[in-house]
């Protein structure tokens, strides 16, 4: 069990975020700068050893953020684990392929895109100057980042080089690109042509728009209880939903699941726990999180709105509950570690209250009518 002080350190208020404008080799390319790179959980793929990181603890996935002015781009690069773009403000063009031409799709607040591994991708702010996206990368070790040859060429014209051990050498800052340092050898055009080509139709299956979310009204055992009523909408992976009919639009392994959470006005999710680590990002309204600690319960408001989106990293195996104390629905994103189905353990009181409403968890871990579950166990 954690102390109050330990639990407080896991809260990442949006106003506390610190950025680096020199996280990657593109920081002096005119069309790419300035770009503000944030590392909330894990260091991500930043190539700057001075990158500020809010929480370094391993979670099995990593959470970052990015913002840049209108018209600025992040150039072609590749990742070896999943990369999910999660827009909270503005409008963004997500690009992929560069083989040789790029294809693209656009997302706005509440939309997400999961870009497949082993293809080049980039993005551009096509909305307001204050646009912001969260990003999720799979794994504690992402394998780094591989820049496209045109990106390396453009950076070199500005005096910035990348070595074969991924050090940034800035000759305009007085550093020298000389032996024993060796420049990174990028993929050849022939090698790039051998990469899989993802069509617009295929990528459309990896775009989850807020307007198309499929909400479940019985994703939790306690959803049926008075003044509870929370709902889930899956985005990717096997999450925490206890609705047998829930199916995420994106199903391939990411090492993390992502779901939308909606808690109605004055609603709540009762006391429960998971064996996995879980990250909560506030999107709209204020959700009160309560966690059992070594002393008194720890309470933390997680807010989301037009200008700020707080993050909280819930430890594994702790008892927690969520509450909406307002007169409007609250929304959050739930990022839960692992590709497997996560199983909620409910407090005995919640189980008893649900039983009084003829609800129980069946042998497969889903919400079902209790009288049928009981009958099968005779």
How would you describe this structure to a colleague?
The protein has helices at residues 4-8, 149-157, 189-193, 200-204, 348-356, 370-376, and strands spanning 11-12, 19-20, 36-41, 53-55, 61-67, 73-79, 83-89, 91-97, 102-108, 112-115, 120-125, 132-138, 145-147, 160-162, 168-170, 207-208, 231-236, 256-263, 268-273, 278-291, 298-304, 311-314, 320-323, 330-337, 345-346, 359-361, 367-369. The chain has 378 residues and is mostly beta strands. It starts with a helix and ends with a helix. It contains 6 helices and 27 strands. The strands form 5 sheets. Strands 1, 17, 18, 19, 20, 21, 22, 23, 24 and 25 form a 10-stranded antiparallel sheet that branches. Strands 2, 3, 4, 5, 7, 10, 12 and 16 form an 8-stranded mixed sheet that branches. The longest helix is centred in the middle third of the chain and has 9 residues, at 149-157. It is elongated, with a radius of gyration of 22 Å.
From the structure above, extract its key features.
378 residues, ten-stranded antiparallel sheet, 27 strands
Mean pLDDT: 96
User: What is the SS-derived class?
Assistant: mainly beta
Q: From the alpha carbons, calculate the radius of gyration and give it in angstroms.
A: 22 Å
Helix run count = 6
Low-pLDDT segments: none
How helix-rich are the residues, as a percent range?
10-25%
In short:
The protein has helices spanning 4-8, 149-157, 189-193, 200-204, 348-356, 370-376, and strands at residues 11-12, 19-20, 36-41, 53-55, 61-67, 73-79, 83-89, 91-97, 102-108, 112-115, 120-125, 132-138, 145-147, 160-162, 168-170, 207-208, 231-236, 256-263, 268-273, 278-291, 298-304, 311-314, 320-323, 330-337, 345-346, 359-361, 367-369. The chain is mainly β and 378 residues long.
